[in-house]
Amino acid sequence: MNKPGEIRLLALGLIRDGERIFVSEGYDPVKQETFYRALGGGVDFGETSRAALEREFQEEIQADLTNIRYLGCIENLFTFSGRQGHEIIQLYQCDFADSKFYQLESLIFSESEIHKHKALWIDIDRFKSGEFRLVPEVFFEYL
């Protein structure tokens, strides 16, 4: 999460396998709501968003990406854990270089020693039906 009053620049990778997408699970304790979004992370100063995307996937789940294609820029204003957030997302479509990632149901990864997250494949229809919440909702335009 960004500091108050700060806009965060992110690079996220939308990975699709047929009718399912690979997403990270999050939880908002204030709203008591689970949500899902594409994996990736912050872009560091002096780093391109594409390089950040590749670095984040390597750091978080030790995965190399291939067929990386820029989809667009999304501005996301949201509230998380009771705080206002503001992100600029550079969104990429990509594939895993190693086919083993398509065989997984889920995996646990760490952004830091404290924060553990779950990444998993979810059928797109489960988001469209409202069973699961995909954020930001504008991601539907890219599916």
TrEMBL record:
GO terms for molecular function: hydrolase activity. The keyword Hydrolase applies. InterPro entries: NUDIX_hydrolase-like_dom_sf (IPR015797), NUDIX_hydrolase_dom (IPR000086). The keyword Hydrolase applies. Residues 1-143 form the Nudix hydrolase domain. CDD domains: NUDIX_Hydrolase (cd04688). This is NUDIX hydrolase. It comes from the Bacteria. It comes from Atlanticothrix silvestris CENA357. Keywords: Hydrolase.
